[in-house]
Amino acid sequence: MLRRVAVIGAGTMGQGIVITIAQASIDVVFKELNEKNVKSALKGIDMNLDREIEKWSITKSEKNAILSRIKGTYTYDDNIKAVDLVIESIKDDFEKKSKLFTELDSILEPNLIIASNTSALSITELAGKTKRADKVVGMHFMNPVTKRPLVEIVRGLKTSDETVKFVQDFAKIINKTAIEVLEYPGRVTIRLIIPLINEAMYVVMEGVAIAKDVDTAMKLGFNFPIGPLALADQMGLDEVMLWMEHLFHELGDLKYRPCPLLRKVVRAGLWGVKTRMGFFKYDENGRMIE
Predict the structure, then answer these.
(1) What is the pLDDT of residues 227-282, one digit of tens each?
(2) E strands, 118-182, where?
(3) What is the dihedral of CA 24, 29, 32, 34, to 10 degrees?
(4) Could you tell me the domains of the chain?
(5) What is the pTM of this model?
(6) What distance in Å separates the CA atoms of residue 104 and residue 109, rounded to the nearest whole number?
(7) 69 vs 27: CA distance, rounded Å
């Protein structure tokens, strides 16, 4: 029976995964690099839950119950080792993830499953950094994790059926709909959404329409709940550019070549919601400023 989960990395995505797990009445411990980052993540989680209270999505007592199931650490202590599943959610950088997987493999029990929240990197390659390739799998959550009911279960070449079944069952427990994806650059979701986002940026760069009107066109014209540029801001424009570069490198298709406007705003440090400025402006709570 699954009682406790560890999440490695508590940035925007990691915090969402932590909250989602705790909401499902499962104890969860997250690991960050240092005490400062742990405190920052706990503050972010607290603020996220307060926003849900403001929207009448949860009560104060429910918030307290969720927080009681969450612990943070910056070491591989007993809380991390005594879990039933580990989910890695650090930055989508292959070298950093490779180092982490080798580290986790040497610390964790040999039968423990390690799931990666990578959106584009190879599960097979990451699994190759361990001695448990059959127990390494992808669990690609959508941002914001607490609102998106989908998770992509990504099977590497050596991922076992038992491992896939375990994370599929876990997805149901945390109220996510899982789709199984065979390893391929971009999976399903990123492969399909990236060309749309990229083309939206070209429309703005070429002066065809301003960002607000591009998003309005897609929301009203095609019933999108959010426009492609606001979505890119939510994802993090720095992350979006990394995904584009990875797909362009892997597949060589020009539709994945990052728009020059994206490169420009990323170099300027305008990464979207997390920096309060991207294609749109945001307040300290991540709300768009009209």
Answers:
(1) 999 999 999 999 999 999 989 999 999 999 999 999 999 999 999 999 999 999 99
(2) 136-141, 150-155, 177-182
(3) 140
(4) 4-182 (3.40.50.720), 189-289 (1.10.1040.10)
(5) 0.89
(6) 9
(7) 5
